[in-house]
Amino acid sequence: MPDVKLHELESAVENGEFVYYYQPKISLVTGRISGAEALIRWIRTDGEIVLPNRFIPLAESTGFITEISLAMFPKLVTDALIVNDVNAKLVTAFNLSAKDFENRHLLHAIQDASGRIDLARLGAELTEASVIGLGNSSALGNLRELAESGIRLAMDDFGTGYSSIDTLSRLPFDIIKLDQGLISRMSDSERSATIVLASIRMAHQLGMEIVAEGIETASAYDFLLHAGCSEVQGFWIAKPMPLDDYLAFIRKDQIWTGLPTGLIHMAILDHVQWRQQLISRVTSLAFNGRVDEAAIRASDVEVDHHQCKLGRWYYGVGQAFRGHPVFDRLEEPHRLLHQAGFDLLESARQGLSRSELTRQMRMLTHQSSRIIELLQELESEAMIDLSLKRV
Ligand code: C2E
Ligand code: MG
Ligand code: MG
Asked: Ligand nearest 60 Cα, by number?
């Protein structure tokens, strides 16, 4: 087929020839479907299905993409409402271009939709490459406003070679979506696997979720499950499909392997980091006389045991393990650890002797060791259970 022309796109919008296909996403915590990504398809009058890479680049370079996005958004909301009638928890994500934010039309359309649909049930994906060009423009302001509307923002194709890390710190993204190239290289390149692991850790540190796309094998699924990735999407689970097929897929309520084993590992790392930050703060308070405020802020230690990262895991997704004796035993040492940490900070402020501080630090370390031991026990037991289920 010859190259697509702009006037063909214009008439395709007029004739309503664009539809969304839906590709399911699976939560690695629950092992169940968590939603889908809406992917545009152009169904021509002769029945040919045209994939986005044949027309999105032209639409983007001419700016016509904003017309397509505006025309498709009501359709997306209608589909998402049908989906949420079957399962109210599912999130429907759709792709946008940074160009869509150069004016406020789409932003207003999305904000106005809040009367029809809970915007937390929608997610927007923007590629890292497209948001790079936003700089300090008004588009960036519009994007920030979108993030405030409650819709979840994902940075798509993360890891494709732009200045990702710097962009992440400046933009209001909730989710990182790892690029499928990185995922496919992961199985035969140790370096790619390491980059995937480090990206998952970084997302976790930033309080962001991490989704991997392009899962084509069971081994990629398992790797990401153990690595602490939040959600996966790919041909191994399901290909993009028309709405009716997607509804049938949801109704089947299939269960994949979902055990937050990777998240136990994150909890161990979080705890080790918390202890290190606490000790670093205590020593600066106790021995540095005048304390560098910036350094303290950078190492701010959460004293509330519900609010530290381990606590948020324990009282959040970790509750999947509630009733497990090892999990239940964790609560006490964790509470005592925070008490010891708080006492230690107070003592340091009052300027206690080195020997007294050392004694208190030993108490902290004792609770810390108990916690690590329990978490590791939980981790290995969960892995054994997981393997036994598959025998
Ligand atoms: P994307 O947002 O990164 O979407 C993922 C693409 O990877 C989809 O291609 C999907 O079919 C494909 N994919 C999913 N799982 C696998 C897998 O396991 N293996 C392989 N090899 N591929 C997989 P699709 O639907 O052709 O879309 C291509 C791109 O077009 C999308 O990449 C997105 O950037 C863009 N796009 C799609 N729909 C829209 C839209 O409505 N608006 C805009 N602005 N862009 C869109
Ligand atoms: Mg996408
Ligand atoms: Mg992508």
From this structure: 1
- Enter the pTM of the model: 0.87
- DSSP string spanning 207-249? T-EEEEE---SHHHHHHHHHHT--EEESTTT---B-HHHHHHH
Instruction: Report pLDDT for 250.
Output: 97
95 Cβ below 6 A of ligand 1: yes
- Which amino acid, residue 39? L
> Which residue is closest in CA terms to ligand 1's atom 45?
95
Q: Is the CB of 51 under 6 A from ligand 1?
A: yes
Per-residue pLDDT at 160: 78
Closest CA to 167 of 217, 129, 207: 129
How far, in Å, from the CA of 127 to the mean position of ligand 2? 7
- Give the pLDDT confidence of 305-360 residue by residue, as tens digits: 999 989 999 998 888 889 999 999 999 999 999 999 999 998 888 888 888 889 99
At residue 383, the pLDDT reads 84
Residues in CB range of 370: below 8 A, 6 or more apart: 333
Residue among 62, 95, 101 whose CB has most ligand 1 atoms within 8 A, to mutate: 95
Q: Which two tokens stand for residue 273?
A: 């980091």
Ligand nearest to the CA of 237: 1
| Helical (H) or strand (E) element with 153 | strand 152-158
Predicted confidence at residue 391, as pLDDT, reads 61
At a CB cut-off of 8 Å and minimum separation 6, what does 341 contact? 278, 301, 303, 364
295 lines ligand 1 (CB under 6 A): no
Residue 65 makes CB contacts below 8 A (sequence gap 6+) with: 56, 59, 97, 99, 100
CA-nearest residue for atom 41, ligand 1, is 40
Tell me the average pLDDT of the chain: 90
